[in-house]
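note to self: the first set is below, dont mix up w the second
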Amino acid sequence: LFILLTGNMGYAQNVRFVSEGTIEYEKKVNMFALIKKNLANIGENVFYVQAFEAYKKNQPQFKVLKSKLVFSNNKTLFSPVVSKEAPTGGFFSNEPAANQYNTIFTDLSAGTTTSQKNVYEETFLIQDSTRKITWKITDEVREIAGYSCRRANAIMLDSIYVVAFYTDQIPVSGGPESFSGLPGMILGVALPHENMTWFATKVNDVAIGAQGVAAPTKGKAMNFPAFKTFITSALKSWGDYAKAALKGFIL
């Protein structure tokens, strides 16, 4: 018993808990599955079907987008990394779910968030409380970016099934986009029915300081319910496709 206890104490002393730094994420979207699902919503159309066949021949199945999370003093700032490459894929590249619109500042201690959303030609500044997600933690574990992570499941926004992996070696309850609320940093997120994932590729344990995590300030100010109402109204002429587009904008 003494050997077991001293061994565990030695292990705990060697584990470094990270309270500030940066995390690099990759968002992957299964474009073949996403486009096929959206075409089913808008009905048979020869032009779209032919365009989709051409897309499958000339474009990769998975679109990859990069982002970065900076965290310090129980605050986080998530922002997309703008690609230097010209967009490909024609009008399919504009799929809302296949892009990154959000720069999100979260004060985890205060339970508040400030999101700057770029939607087509407009910029919104959405200030609200952090998104409430009721997580169910499981016993499944996996390694992500060198950290042991535990799985948790949830339903958010009434119907979106979420699988997340968090590590308690980074004792900050944040994560990519608006995912938060677990007892450690979220390094992996999968939305199986939405055909997309976010996974950390690198964690940098570096000093950040208060100046490195600041909320965005530009955009048309409103709260989240008002933004959802505005976008829903703007998409009302999009027919059955509007529901899929709305998910992409409000994630």
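second set (the one i keep forgetting abt)
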Amino acid sequence: INRAAKYMFLVIALVFLVVFITELINDQRIHIFQYALVGFAIALFFVLLLSISEFLGFDNSYMIVAFAIIGLTFLYTKSIFNNTKSTYTLLGLMIFIFAYIYLIIQLEKSALLVGSIGLFIILAATMYVTRKIKWYEE
């Protein structure tokens, strides 16, 4: 749980990045309140993980809580983005993020190496996806 809590800001940042890129690609504005609700859902993941793992153990709790939070966020963003492809892409990326964090938590000695390489790949993918966005155009 302690190791998972250390990755809380990384998970929140990655989920916000995915939602932001989805917003840009769809050319659809998302209100700051909607971002806040997604952020609260991700933060709640760690509270639920802590409380449920006291009874079910870490691995089972992680899977249950990840499924619940990813499902909640998926259903919420499905109502925001009126685009099925974008919503399912967001779902896939969230599953990837939670699986990635779970993998890093499980690795003790090589967590820094795997985490750094993973973040490099995520940064490269973000640069690739946003390369054609005209940031200063109306």
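remember for set 2: The radius of gyration is 16 Å.
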